[in-house]
Amino acid sequence: MSFAFSMDENRDPLVMIQPGNKPETLRPLMKKSGGKMPMIWGTYTVRSDVAEFVCEEYAKSVLSQLKRFFQQNRPGVNVVFTDSGGNTLDSLKPTAAATPVEDSDDLDVTGQDPQAVGPLIKRLKRIEPRIALAPGELELKMRKALAKCVSQINTGDLQMAETTLTVIERAIARIGQDREDEDTAMNRAAREQQGRALRSSVERARALSANIARTPGSPARDKLERAIHQAARLLKDKNTDEADAVMDKVEAALTQLS
Fold first, then answer.
1. Whole-prediction pTM value?
2. Mind spelling out the 3-state secondary structure of 128-179?
3. 3-state secondary structure of 108
4. Given 12, 110, 152, 156, which is the most exposed site by the fewest CB atoms within 10 A?
């Protein structure tokens, strides 16, 4: 769609739109309807939750007036203004009613392991206020991702929550709105992920040890006990991959004994 915008002699906004890609044809119609120079015109496209206005001719003062016009009319989408070369001139964030409602206040981790979920919540709360520092369109995407992360944490899908949160952290780091650079954020995320994997493996080893203790005494049981002690030593060295491989064999052997 083509659009044109200006203020009339009473300083009221005047907006015209028409199908097609020749917005300059609106100029005489704007003048005839009382529009005053300077004017702004171009084309716009609405995709999903973003309206992009390509301003082929504009003045900064009129662009500010057009932005104010949208603010007063509370758009339900994010509005991005660019020039004909694709450079972003300005943006308008959507109204609060249009943004995802879930944020850190909606977290509910009742019944979940605090050691497993705690680091994720800490990271989420640390990065949440920095999302507001992102440009309009990117902020909208990250707030949606944040709401998704909150839902994943609430349902106990911590692996997916980890992935979603890491994407947000990397995006914030890339635009320079985080105290950490991207590599630091990734390294810290990797350490926390390894910590969760280690805790999970430790719990698995404890459960297997309890199952072995309930089996009748035999050479096979002695062998399993040695194996689970080996897994425990590997976990102490934070070698979760080899420990998990040993525990896979223990589980298979227990299944045959049962």
1. 0.40
2. HHHHCCCCHHHHHHHHHHHHHHHHHHHCCCHHHHHHHHHHHHHHHHHCCCCC
3. coil
4. 110
